[in-house]
Amino acid sequence: MRQISWICCCVILIISCTKKVGADLEGSYSDKALFDSAHNQNYRYYKNDSITILPGTHGPHGTFKLRFNSIAYRALTDTGKLPLQGKFPEGSFLVKDVYKNGVLDIYAYMYKRNGNWLWGEVHTTGKFEYGSKDGAAVCLGCHNQPGNRDNAVSFNFY
């Protein structure tokens, strides 16, 4: 009996210590976890173009590259856009890599959870401009504009 209890304790300890913060968005919604996910470089680039930096003249972010996790990417058409009236599925994660003076400075992200978006802007250093608790109030002013596709507006301009 004592040996079984010891084995169970070891298994629980191993499982609880192996979760990497931000690696599994289903279990982690904190700003730290969202930051970890935003700087994940395994996401697919908009129109499969990892080189072009878009001008960002139509919004407040500045020059940027746009990336999608695999869930969001599967919702895009062969032209690289979400269809009109389309919706990103649960678990979609979109990241704008925002550049300042040619250097990656901020990750602006959208993460779909429970049918709603969590929003944020965080510097590559981990310093937050806006986190998931206040991001919607700041971001929806632009992202709600006519023609948006599930609150994504980059498709309107690029």
Strand content: 15-25%
- The SSE order reads HHEEHEEEEHH
Strand tally: 6
- Tell me the major beta sheet: 6 strands, antiparallel
Q: What would the principal axes of the Cα set say about the shape?
A: globular
Q: What is Rg? A: 18 Å
Number of domains: 1
Structural class: alpha+beta
Distance N to C terminus? 65 Å
Outline the secondary-structure elements:
Elements: H1 2-18, H2 31-38, E1 44-45, E2 64-68, H3 70-73, E3 93-100, E4 103-113, E5 116-123, E6 128-130, H4 135-143, H5 154-157
Question: Key features?
Answer:
158 residues, alpha+beta, 6-stranded antiparallel β-sheet, 5 helices, 23% strand
Structural account:
This protein has one domain. Helix content is 27%, strand content 23%. β4 and β5 form a beta hairpin. It has 158 residues and is of the alpha+beta class. It starts with a helix and ends with a helix. The protein is globular, with a radius of gyration of 18 Å. The longest helix has 17 residues. It has a six-stranded antiparallel sheet.
